[in-house]
Design brief:
heterodimer; A: mainly alpha; ABC transporter involved in vitamin B12 uptake, BtuC; globular; B: 257 residues; alpha/beta; Rossmann fold; six-stranded mixed sheet
């Protein structure tokens, strides 16, 4: 019994950790329309800065995590300032390089980071209640961000950058702001993951992780926070459910098929530009209840 | 005579070897409605893009409201009071009409990220003020019934109107309209003329219009500037322009015989 419980607790905790990173990428990609394929790199910065500060300087773990976020924001600022002047596709290409560069730096500074073998015993901190609390805080932050002028500026940029700039929106500054915020959120997620596994390894934060984050957001529907969250809740634990011998290898293939299906049938993602609200759910069920009645009346008229 | 609101002198733009706009001059007094016409490819939109800062001029100066704005960043020029619409409508398509206007009106909000995250300080007051302001603009433009509709679902003429409403949310001193009557029928463009004149009267606005609808331009504008192949060829009242040989030549070609 306890084994099953521990198993489920683990899955829920890891899903909750990834949810924070997904929300970070959702703000950047789903709402502002900036595609970054390097966000696993910023998770990596968060995880390693925290791990190093806790292990070699003996700082409390929560301080380490905050420092990891700060370091990632600073790093994001340094990289964002020049690259966010690039338009769309060029930024995407730059971000692939950034993500891989961070991972390679970690792999090649063996003395400091343990290289590709990773770092052990970096301290356990992350528990299910901590993750759930942080999830709630991050969601509240994201909702309030999106309901402010900052969030609306982001959406305006995604909708039409030229119009946004001609209407007095400081496009560059808004992009830098949302980029740094997303760097902080993915770093929080990375640091929590490290202090959950009690272990960090550069391979955790490879390009595949970046593309998983982006895919989750796109499948959930760009411009929908609830869509991103739902997709995260379904897709993150998916590999756990498929954990038979061959399913692991089929995982990326299944992702691919899912993406093709979504592009074919729901090109805006599951929830593109719509939010799941309680009022909306009520309306949906009302419509379902009315459906048989309206069919009957339609038949009656015939 | 008072200082003009917009004064353009010697404005030139070269794209490689092509001179798109050559030594262009224009001054618009406060409160006037001026037109800019010319055959396709004459460089009208290029002039607009330079005034609004979207592309930097090769040479020349643009003075707005007594300040030199040549080559400044477009969002700063917009905030100084130059708002524009686009030839091919550029709305924030997946947003509602109301959100389109609110997103621009918020240029006047001054709260910071901490205030909006914790809902303290100036956040609530400014959000409420700007929501009311946005609704009042929609009301004045006759768009109130469409406030909650997704803007790309509206009819073409209404989308044009929303774009003007969005520009008005900047509280501009100068409104620049790039082919506002494109794709409109006679009635719609007549209504547009009335709308532009009433906006000018209510908001103390100055207007510069590009359009191909000669009827509308002649009815709306006090003075008209004509461009051809990037060169200024005529300036005057609608009557003068209609009688000008250079203008007729530019539009209809020269008689060879």
């Amino acid at each position: 019994m306890t084994i099953i419980n521990a198993y489920w607790t683990g899955i829920i905790t890891q899903t909750g950790i990834m949810l924070i990173a997904i929300i970070g990428v959702s703000l950047l990609t789903g709402f502002t329309g900036i595609f970054s394929m390097g966000h696993a790199g910023f998770m990596c910065v968060g995880a390693y800065v925290s791990a190093l500060l806790v292990k070699s300087c003996g700082l409390p773990i929560w301080v380490g995590i905050l420092c990891g976020m700060a370091a990632s924001m600073l790093f994001g600022l340094l990289i964002g300032l020049p690259t966010l002047r690039l338009r769309g596709d060029y930024f995407l290409i730059a971000s692939i390089g950034i993500g891989e560069a961070i991972r390679l730096i970690v792999e090649n500074t063996y003395d400091l980071t343990g290289g590709s073998t990773g770092m052990m015993d970096i301290g356990r901190f992350t528990s299910l209640p901590v993750v759930l609390l942080l999830d709630v805080l991050v969601i509240i932050f994201a909702v309030r961000f999106l309901k402010s002028k900052f969030g609306r500026n982001c959406v305006a940029i995604r909708e039409d950058e030229t119009a946004a700039i001609a209407m007095g929106i400081d496009v560059y500054r808004t992009k830098v702001l949302v980029f740094i915020i997303s760097c902080a959120l993915v770093a929080l997620s990375g640091a929590l993951l490290g202090h959950y596994l009690n272990y960090v390894n550069p391979k955790i934060f490879n390009a595949r992780k970046s593309s998983e984050l982006i895919m989750t957001v796109i499948m959930g529907g760009s411009g929908s926070l609830t869509g991103s969250i739902l997709a995260g809740l379904v897709l993150t634990p998916l590999p756990e459910f498929l954990r038979t011998e061959s399913a692991q290898e089929w995982r990326m293939a299944i992702y691919g098929i899912l993406i093709v299906l979504i592009i074919m049938f729901r090109p805006n993602g599951l929830m593109g530009n719509k939010e799941l609200t309680i009022a909306g759910i009520k309306r949906f069920f009302q419509r379902i209840r009315l459906l048989p009645a309206s069919r009957k009346s339609a038949k009656g008229k015939e | 005579m008072t200082e003009p609101l917009l004064k353009i002198t010697g404005l030139t733009k070269q794209f490689g070897g092509l001179t798109a706009v050559d030594d262009f001059h224009l001054s618009i007094p406060k409160g006037a409605i001026y037109g800019l016409i010319g055959p396709n490819g004459a460089g009208k939109t290029t002039v607009f893009n330079m005034v609004t800062g979207i592309i930097p001029p090769t040479s020349g100066t643009i003075v707005f409201d007594g300040k030199d704005i040549t080559g400044q960043q477009p969002h700063l020029i917009a905030r100084k009071g130059i708002a524009r619409t686009f030839q091919n409508i550029k709305l924030f398509e997946s947003l509602t009409v109301f959100k389109n206007v609110l997103t621009v009106a918020q240029a006047q909000m001054t709260y910071n990220l901490l205030e909006s995250t914790l809902h303290i300080g100036r956040y609530r007051k400014q959000e409420k003020e700007m929501e009311a302001f946005s609704h009042s603009i929609l009301e004045q433009m006759g768009l109130a019934p469409y406030a909650d509709m997704i803007s790309s679902n509206l009819a073409y003429g209404l989308q044009r109107r929303v774009e003007i409403a969005r520009a008005m949310a900047l509280k501009p001193k100068l409104l620049i309209l790039d082919e506002p009557a494109a794709g409109m029928n006679e009635d719609e463009s007549l209504a547009l003329v009335e709308l532009i004149v009433s906006l000018r009267d209510q908001f103390d606005l100055t207007v510069l219009v590009i359009d191909h609808h000669m009827d509308m331009i002649m009815r709306l504008c006090e003075k008209i500037t004509v461009l051809n192949f990037g060169k200024y060829i005529a300036f005057g009242t609608p009557e003068e322009i209609q009688a000008n040989d250079h203008v007729i030549e530019a539009y209809l070609g020269v008689d060879d015989e």
